[in-house]
Amino acid sequence: MELAIAAKAGAALEAYKSFFEKQGVQLLHVSSLSELFQSLPTSVISGFIIDIHLVLKATEMEKGMLQVLEGIFPNVRTNWHPPEGFRALYKDSQQSGEENLFAFLEDCRNFKPRALRKDRREAINFNVLFWPSEATETAAHRAYTSDVSPGGIFVCTCHPPPEGQVVWVKLLELDDQPCQLLVRRSLAWGAARRVPGFGGSFVEMSKDLGKKLEAALRNSGQTAPQPGKGRDLAASGPQQEGAGLV
Predict the structure, then answer these.
(1) Which residue, among 180, 166, 232, has the nearest Cα to 209 in the 3D structure?
(2) Which of 14, 18, 32, 202 has the maximal Cβ count within 10 Å?
(3) Closest CA to 110 of 190, 211, 54, 52
C-alpha cells in the first residue's frame, strides 16, 4: 500500500517514515501542499498524511484544494514531537495518536487505490434519476450531481450501485433522454465521513445530449469532448486507463 505524506524534511519526517514503514506502507514524500497536488494525477495512492504545520502555513487556495482532496481520499492531519510522540485525531478523540493512525490505516487498506483525475471538474448540480441498465425507469432512484466533468459525473445518493455496474442516468435539467454510465467509484453511506454516492464515466450518450452537456460545461468554463471520447471520471487503479477521479 502506498500513501502520500506532505511534511518538511527533519526529525518529524523520519518518525513518520519509521512508523509507517513498520506497517508495511510505502510513502510518497512531498514537502509542500502544492507538490502534493502536482503529484497525485500520476501517483496511485490509498490515502495521504498531512503534517499540521503545512496546513497552518497554507494559502487560501491551497486550503480549498486540500478540502477537495479530503473529500476523496482517506486522510489524517498529524504532527510529532519527541516527548509526546504522534498527535493525530482521526475518529476518536479518546484514543492516542498512534491508535488514530492505526484506524486511518485500516480505512486506507479498505480504500481502492487511485490517482487524481487530470480533468478539472465543475460544481454543477443536476437533478438525477438513475437505474440499473437491465431495469426500467420505474426502478429509478432520485439523486443529484455534485460535480460534472467532460468524462462523467459524481452522483450524491445513499443508494450507490457497485463499482463496475452500468447504469442509466437521466440529467433532468439537460434532457429527458438517459445516458449510460459505468460506475468507477462507489461510496457507501457512513464511510469515513465522505459524501455517499458514485462516480462514473459516460459510455453511451446521444449527440443531442452531448451538445447540451458541452454547453453546460462551457458556461461553467469547461468544454466537453464528443460523446464516448471522454476520460474516466472516477479514480483509476494501476491496471485501468486514465487517472480520473470524481
Answers:
(1) 180
(2) 202
(3) 190
Q: Is 85 left (phi over 0), alpha (psi -120 to 50) or beta?
A: left
- 14: Cβ contacts below 8 Å, ≥ 6 apart: none
Domain count, the chain: 2
Q: Are residues 180 and 96 in the same domain?
A: no
The beta strands (E) that lie in 43-178 are given as 48-51, 75-81, 85-88, 127-132, 141-149, 152-156, 166-171
CATH code assigned at 204: 2.40.10.220
Q: Say what the pTM is.
A: 0.53
| Residue 101 structural domain | 2-109
Count CA atoms within 13 Å of residue 59 on its CB side. 6
Find the angle CA(179)-CA(180)-CA(185) to the nearest 5 degrees.
125
Residue 179 CB coordination number (10 Å): 22
Is residue 155, in this structure, part of any structural domain at all?
yes
Per-residue pLDDT reduced to its tens digit, 88-123: 777 766 778 788 888 889 999 988 888 876 556 778
How do residues 12-64 score in pLDDT, each as one tens digit?
888 889 889 998 999 999 888 888 888 887 788 999 999 888 888 888 878 77
